[in-house]
Sequence to fold (104 residues):
Amino acid sequence: MGTEINTQTIDLDMAASAFVAAYIEAKAKIKEWTEKADLAAEQIKAALGDHEVGLVDGKPAVRWSTVETKAINIKKCREILPPQVLDLVEVVRTSKRFTIVEEE
Fold:
């Protein structure tokens, strides 16, 4: 078997490897605190019931408002619109996704 070189990969130095470890640790802490925040939010929402504003010491501390958003259902558009119309309005954006590769 020969060794294949992939120009899209690089061996990270020790400094970059340390940043990978720090990133993983920070993301784990973020996940932990996000779970705590989500649990607290659920408890607050339960306390609010049907009310929109919760007061602490007589002052507004939390607001749980109803928000309406509109979006275009692209799947439905593809079903009912001709391709020529979709070509006029469809926009393709390219970006890069940063992902930590987890061990299996």
Remarks:
- The first strand starts at residue 53 and ends at 56.
